Amino acid sequence: MILDLDIGNTLSKWRLKDADSSEIRSRGAVWTREEWRPGADIPDLDVVEAVRISSVARKAVLQETVGLLRRRVGTVHVARSTHEALGVSNGYEEPGKLGVDRWMGALAGYQLAGGCCAVDCGSAITVDFVLPGGRHLGGYIIPGLRLMKESLKLGTRNVAIDPDSEAEELLEPGRRTVEAVNHGIYMAAVSAVNRIYSEVCDQQDVALPMLLTGGDARVVSRGIQVPHAVWPDMVYGGLEACFPLTAAERAGRLSGAPRVPSPVAMEKIRAALAFSMLL
Questions:
Q1: Is 120 known as a binding-site position?
Q2: Could you tell me if 23 and 111 lie in one domain?
Q3: Residue 11 is labelled as binding a ligand
Q4: Is residue 57 located within the same domain as residue 110?
Q5: pLDDT tens for residues 64-86?
Q6: pLDDT in tens, 98-128
Q7: Is 46 a residue of the active site?
Q8: Could you tell me if 114 and 135 are in contact, meaning their C-beta atoms sit under 8 angstroms apart?
Q9: Which of 8, 42, 212, 238 is 20 to 30 A (C-alpha) from 119?
Q10: Catalytic residue among 20, 44, 101, 205
Q11: Range(s) of the domain holding residue 71
Q12: How far apart are CA 93 and CA 38, in angstroms?
């Protein structure tokens, strides 16, 4: 089995992948630990033959995790943000400062679509652009839905926006305080993503496919105005592309990859952008 770990500052996701069939056998998520407990936080390591890690947690957390795993597992791969990988050139002035989860998402999106807008809807919402040809432009970071709600001093009470809610409902004025807050932060998030996408595509004169991942991807996607796809395993896809361990991965097949959405015509993007600037 292959254990893939996507370690965030607060939440860590894991999955077990069959090394022979490339099928996903199980998956889960826990709060990020200072010290991991195999069999409780992550699967029993006796069945694991290789580990791949993407981590944005504190350096000490990553060191402890890698130390534990290397004592129990033969092969441990740790992803890093580099100057270049898989045909993509990192747009950061200091490439190592780019969050590795964003780098994995950018690499996965490029392998799948050959140029993309990669949006990760987690604690923060990040938007990264990779042009056809592999030039990563850099990106944007805005507060995520939960972070925006916490900034209003309402903590996490009723924070979850139902991912099955109709976007039209979420964009209407709230008639209770909790609705007003939820609808307001939703409007702020989706408006920012829509505007960022249009502005960058206009500047670069290219319409890029958009791919969304992260815990709030499903709900954010309902307010996105351009063709897009939700890819929950996009960060894992970057790990697969960087460290291919199965026959399917070596052939370029990434787990759970969606059909690449056809971008809208540049004329429509520019018309929508021009209209929004009049408001």
A1: yes
A2: no
A3: yes
A4: no
A5: 889 989 999 989 999 999 999 99
A6: 999 999 999 999 999 999 999 999 889 999 9
A7: no
A8: no
A9: 42
A10: 101
A11: 2-78
A12: 38
To the question of whether residue 125 is assigned a binding role by annotation, the answer is no
Token duo for residue 68? 């534990």
**Residue 12 counted as an annotated binding residue:** yes
CB-facing half-sphere around the CA of 204: CA atoms within 13 A:
21
Q: Is 13 annotated for ligand binding?
A: yes
First to last CA, the chain: 54
- Quick one: DSSP state of residue 8? -
Question: What whole-number distance in Å separates Cα of residue 101 and Cα of residue 89?
Answer: 16
Is the domain of 105 the same as that of 140?
A: yes
Beta carbons within 10 angstroms of residue 11's beta carbon: 14
The answer to the question of whether 205 is labelled as a binding residue is no
Stated as kind and residue range, the H or E segment containing 14 is strand 11-17
Do 62 and 192 belong together in one domain? no
Is the torsion defined by CA of 193, 120, 114, 134 positive or negative? positive
Question: Residue 97 phi/psi, 5° resolution?
Answer: -85, -10
CA dist., res. 207 & res. 191, Å (int): 18
Prediction pTM value = 0.89
177 marked ligand binding residue: yes
Q: What is the largest CA-CA distance in the chain?
A: 61
Q: Which residue has the tokens 């001093």?
A: 153
Same domain, 107 and 55: no
Please provide the average confidence, as pLDDT, over all residues in the chain.
89
Number of domains in the chain: 2
Q: What is the 3-state secondary structure (H, E, C) of 166-197?
A: CHHHHCCCCCCHHHHHHHHHHHHHHHHHHHHH
- Among residues 102, 101, 100, 87, the alpha carbon closest in space to that of 138 is found at 102
Half-sphere exposure at residue 166, Cβ-oriented, CA atoms within 13 angstroms: 3
The string of pLDDT tens digits covering residues 2-53 is 999 999 887 889 999 999 999 999 999 888 876 777 777 778 888 999 999 9
